[in-house]
């Protein structure tokens, strides 16, 4: 009985390509270094002196009481006529960026995970493979874990910052999302239709039955309470990790709209890319979407627009399309972030006084140095939402609507545990017996997990996770819009 079959070959091939070829041909590196993004070069000291009317470097010396003199950096007037030069970002430039290697590996891994998932979907559509494990599901699950890890790594960077209050902002939003998650947990299914409560009930019953078979005792109410507490803690953690990505997205969105002031079609696309969190949040509010679409009021009668399964498929496709749209507009948001250097210079010209040359150079170069951090903040939530939807479809037994699927179709694990180990022939060696024993253990473990985690549980959990990521993005983005637009903070 095959455990992985063709999928194992494709997985090993993808892992080899990711390890061997990615250092030379990388989609993540191409996304930044394809010549479409331009960085602003910081001016040299000679250029600043020439603009300030100075021909020779002069240092101000300040004598301390002990007789030691300190050299202060040169300063220039803030209202100098400074114009920054632009240069396309090259691979050499990108290698010095903070977290560039993590960014490149994460984007490439997400791309290969998506390709493998698409292959397994086509493979299950063409071949009847009820005895195989869906490897694409494992890749999507790892992508979700790596997305959260990347967001946590970036959040750690803010926690290490001494100035600016970033740590307080993360903790405040994490506590705020903790309260929201606790409120969401008590909302009934008539209003938020995740299916989390039925899925949790089925999981607890299966787990209690499994523990009884092992001679242990388990309490269903205690298991439910422990699971909900863990889920609330996870929601708070994800909310803290998505705080600064949401604030950054709001800033880049406003800057991208200003950059595309003379391109109305691009502005429409930018507005459309800002709407996915709102649409995803609304699509799981039953009175607004499902009740209206399934039984639309037409006068005194109600007309059914689409079936329940069609609405589930429609919801999956809408989220996938919105994620692809936001991914296609990555370049404009990153270029809007790089434009902060020019905004800094324009704002400096309107101020009075003097500023040191070193501060000007640091301000401009620091914006480019954090480009990959901003790219991770923009792309990681997209990958997290996108692969949550893919898992929701596969593990929840939903359909893309492109091909007919039999009732009860389960492309994850669909086999029963083997009661007796296969008998080995007399001429088989020990290696073959070890392989068969390993296969037997894998199949038994997969069968046990299959009996505990049912499609009903996966539907509730991944629907809630997808919805919660969008809630965090929506709240932080709206706060960022207010913060940058009305408080005048850039």
Features:
mainly alpha; 20 helices; two-stranded antiparallel ribbon; signal; two-stranded antiparallel sheet; 490 residues; transmembrane helix; glycoprotein
Explain what you see.
- By secondary structure, the protein is mostly helical.
- It has one domain (6-56, 71-418, 450-485).
- 65% of the residues lie in helices and 6% in strands.
- The chain contains 20 helices and eight strands.
- The chain has helices spanning 6-20, 27-33, 45-52, 91-94, 100-126, 135-159, 166-185, 196-213, 220-241, 243-259, 264-274, 276-283, 290-294, 308-328, 330-338, 340-349, 357-369, 371-395, 430-452, 455-485, and strands at 38-41, 60-63, 69-72, 75-77, 85-88, 296-298, 301-303, 354-356.
- Strands 1-5 form a two-stranded antiparallel ribbon. Strands 2-3 form a two-stranded antiparallel ribbon.
- Strand 6 and strand 7 (301-303) form a beta hairpin.
- The chain starts with 5 loop residues before the first helix and ends in a 5-residue tail after the last helix.
- The model is unreliable at 406-428 (pLDDT under 50).
């Amino acid at each position: 009985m095959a455990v992985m079959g063709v999928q194992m070959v494709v997985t090993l091939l993808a892992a080899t390509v990711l390890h061997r070829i990615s250092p030379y041909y990388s989609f993540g590196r191409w996304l930044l270094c394809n010549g479409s993004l331009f960085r602003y070069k910081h001016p040299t000291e000679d250029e600043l002196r020439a603009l300030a009317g100075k021909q020779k470097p002069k240092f101000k010396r300040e004598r301390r009481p002990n007789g030691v003199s300190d050299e202060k950096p040169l300063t220039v007037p803030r209202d100098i006529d400074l114009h920054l030069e632009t240069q396309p970002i090259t691979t050499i430039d990108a290698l010095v960026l903070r977290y560039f290697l993590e960014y490149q590996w994460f984007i490439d891994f997400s791309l290969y995970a998506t390709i493998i998932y698409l292959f397994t979907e086509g493979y299950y559509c063409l071949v009847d493979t009820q005895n195989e494990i869906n490897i694409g599901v494992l890749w999507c699950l790892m992508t979700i874990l790596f997305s959260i890890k990347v967001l946590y790594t970036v959040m750690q960077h803010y926690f290490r910052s001494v100035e600016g209050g970033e740590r307080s902002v993360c903790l405040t939003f994490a506590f705020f999302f903790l309260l929201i998650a606790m409120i969401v947990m008590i909302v009934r299914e008539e209003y938020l239709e995740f299916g989390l409560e039925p899925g949790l009930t089925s999981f607890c019953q299966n787990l209690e039955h499994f523990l009884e078979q092992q001679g242990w005792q388990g309490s269903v109410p205690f298991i439910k309470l422990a699971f909900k507490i863990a889920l609330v803690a996870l929601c708070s953690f994800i909310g803290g990790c998505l705080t600064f990505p949401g604030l950054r997205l709001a800033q880049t969105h406003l800057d991208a709209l200003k950059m595309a002031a003379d391109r109305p079609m691009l502005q429409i696309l930018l507005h459309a890319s800002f709407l996915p969190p709102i649409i995803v949040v609304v699509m799981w509010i039953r009175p607004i979407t499902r009740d209206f679409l399934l039984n639309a009021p037409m006068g005194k009668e109600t007309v059914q627009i689409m079936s329940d399964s069609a609405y589930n498929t429609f919801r999956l496709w809408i989220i996938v399309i919105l994620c692809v749209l936001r991914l296609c507009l990555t370049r404009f948001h990153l270029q809007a972030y790089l434009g902060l250097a020019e905004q800094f210079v324009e704002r400096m010209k309107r101020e009075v006084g003097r500023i040191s040359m070193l501060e000007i150079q640091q301000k401009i170069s620091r914006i480019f140095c954090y480009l990959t951090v901003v790219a991770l903040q923009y792309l990681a939530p997209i990958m997290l939402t996108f692969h949550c939807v893919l898992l929701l479809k596969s593990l929840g037994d939903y359909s893309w609507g492109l091909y007919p699927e039999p009732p009860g179709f389960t492309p994850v694990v669909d086999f029963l545990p083997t009661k007796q180990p296969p008998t080995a022939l007399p001429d088989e060696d020990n290696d073959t017996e070890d392989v068969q024993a390993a296969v037997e253990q894998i199949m038994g473990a997969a069968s046990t997990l299959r009996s505990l985690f049912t499609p009903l549980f996966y539907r509730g959990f991944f629907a809630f996770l997808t919805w919660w990521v969008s809630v965090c993005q929506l709240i932080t983005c709206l706060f960022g819009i207010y913060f940058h637009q009305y408080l005048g903070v850039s």
